[in-house]
Amino acid sequence: MKITDIEIKTLVLPFPAPIRIAFAVIEGATGVFVRIKTDEGIFGIGEASPFGPVTGETVESTVAALELFRPMLIGRDPTDLEGIHADMDRLLAYNGSAKCAVDIALYDIIGKAAGLPLYKVLGGANPTVENDNTIHIDTPAEMQRLAKQYVAQGYRILKIKTGIDPETDIEAVRLIREAVGPAIRLRIDANQGYDLCTAVRVLNAMKDLGVEAAEQPLPYWDVEGMARLRSRVPGIRIMADESVHDPHDAMRVIRAGAADVINIKLMKCGGIYPALKINAAAEAAGVTCMVGCMADSKIAIAAGLALVAAQRNIADADLDGFLHKKDPEMGMKGGFTYEGGTFTLTDKPGLGIDFDFDAI
Ligand SMILES: [Mg+2]
Asked: Which residues does the chain have with pLDDT short of 70?
């Protein structure tokens, strides 16, 4: 089988309202979508969800990166994941989202050619994943209201965005715990918003409120600080997100003893193939992984869910990006179904998503 063409399109994914996290207010998102065609009539769909403050990419730079990859891709065997990733890295450093779009489309092709859903291509047997939902930064009362709403919808794990004002963060989590009771699992994500001293104080308070994990409490570059924080606040898992893009970052964090959990994002690392390398390094070191997302639509979310379903060491899923859109479906039929926090992948080959690429 040979790749004959790669088509690139952008699609605006509107939000119902701006989303607030520690370092940004996000008004909306534009996804970059690819369709990779082959000489056997099989095609694959992929998605890039560039996010400048984390991946250093814009929509325009992502399109340019994909244009740069095109001549290298045409004529290649789409199952040559190792070779194609090596050549993408040779042509352009970083640019994880652009590489991810190609990677997802290749896995979609491989699944379709094998007649297997992606989670089975990746070695999995169970199509269900327990997913969380995210509460973005708002007034503590509004955050409490959303927590009640998500729990009523069936979510058992909530991720709470923090990192702007420590006292308000603790108040919001206190109100949420009061409203949802002790059985609901809570995690916070400070998005690099604290310094070490503040983080020690906040995480001790969060631990007393039954928060199980704190994601990226310190700036992405402060790996030593994360290691010190981890030894000073035992009993709450420290999770590295912005500190880990690729497998080399993962090794740095693991060697420093800076994290209990690594948040893998396909958009940071360049797709499923490099994500498997991060997870293998983490698993060997006794560190678990979560798969998170950017403002992904259902295409990249389905790829992330398949990865979680297939890998035992990936113990958590934070794959709710599509839910926070005005229209979660965006015309993308299939892939998975969900009831509350229980997501079930389709058994159709590849991503199993029916998406009219020509209509974009
Ligand atoms: Mg995060």
From this structure: none
